């Protein structure tokens, strides 16, 4: 069995209605995944399954999510080892864990997209391109920056943002 981390891009089903983590774990169990567990109520799932290509498992999860909850959602997977490498690669480990974030990408972020974000970012925001993912030290509340509105699937490709506290929490759950 291989341990996987699944990140759901958006778990808002409708205004005022989010996916309940117990329901997400139940969905994973119906797929035959073992020991599903979640961290905070924002679409972070760890489970065990037979080793398979990430794209195959992402597709199974996305299909099950759409069938279970009636809404499509992008799901990005990493193996346990890859997640631990991602957490260890944080270029801003001394920053505020709530304001240091990573946009975990399904496919590596391209250099043109990174350059576009560098042009938009204000001088106090630090950006790093690490193993295809985008690390950002907002040095303040991400919601108060213009950059946040540019971190979209349309502009960057499929990915999802997690703060360093969540990244480290998931790594701790993995042991």
Describe the structure.
The chain has helices spanning 21-30, 54-69, 80-88, 111-120, 153-156, 164-174; strands spanning 2-8, 12-14, 17-18, 34-38, 44-49, 75-79, 100-105, 126-130, 133-137, 159-163. The protein has two domains: 2-82, 2-Layer Sandwich (Alpha-Beta Plaits), CATH 3.30.70; 89-174, Alpha-Beta Plaits (2-Layer Sandwich). Helix 3 (80-88) crosses helix 6 (164-174). The model has no long low-confidence stretch (mean pLDDT 93). The longest helix has 16 residues, at 54-69. The protein has six helices and ten strands. By secondary structure, the chain is α+β, with helices and mostly antiparallel strands. The strands form three sheets. A four-stranded antiparallel beta sheet has the order 4-5-1-6, with helices on both faces. A four-stranded antiparallel beta sheet has the order 8-9-7-10.
Summarize the entry for a quick read.
It contains 6 helices and 10 strands; from the N terminus they run βββαββαβαβαββαβα. The chain is α+β, with helices and mostly antiparallel strands and 175 residues long. The model has no long low-confidence stretch (mean pLDDT 93).
Helix-strand blueprint:
Layout: E1 2-8, E2 12-14, E3 17-18, H1 21-30, E4 34-38, E5 44-49, H2 54-69, E6 75-79, H3 80-88, E7 100-105, H4 111-120, E8 126-130, E9 133-137, H5 153-156, E10 159-163, H6 164-174
Antiparallel strand pairs: 1-5, 1-6, 2-3, 4-5, 7-9, 7-10, 8-9
Helix pairs in contact: 3-6
């Amino acid at each position: 069995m291989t341990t996987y981390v699944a990140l759901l891009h958006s778990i808002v089903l409708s205004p005022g209605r989010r996916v309940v983590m117990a329901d997400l774990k139940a969905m994973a169990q119906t797929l035959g995944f073992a020991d599903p567990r979640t961290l905070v109520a924002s679409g972070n799932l760890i489970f065990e399954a037979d080793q398979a290509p990430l794209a195959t498992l992402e597709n199974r999860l996305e299909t099950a999510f759409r069938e279970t909850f009636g809404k499509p959602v992008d799901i990005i997977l990493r193996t346990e080892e890859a997640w631990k490498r991602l957490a260890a690669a944080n270029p801003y480990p001394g920053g505020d864990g709530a304001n240091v974030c990573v946009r975990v990408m399904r496919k590596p972020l391209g250099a043109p997209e990174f350059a576009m974000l560098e042009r938009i970012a204000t001088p106090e925001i630090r950006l790093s391109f690490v193993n295809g993912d985008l690390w950002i030290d907002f040095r303040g509340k991400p919601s108060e920056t213009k950059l946040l509105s540019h971190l979209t699937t349309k502009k960057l490709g499929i990915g999802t943002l997690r703060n360093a506290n969540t990244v480290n929490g998931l790594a701790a759950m993995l042991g």
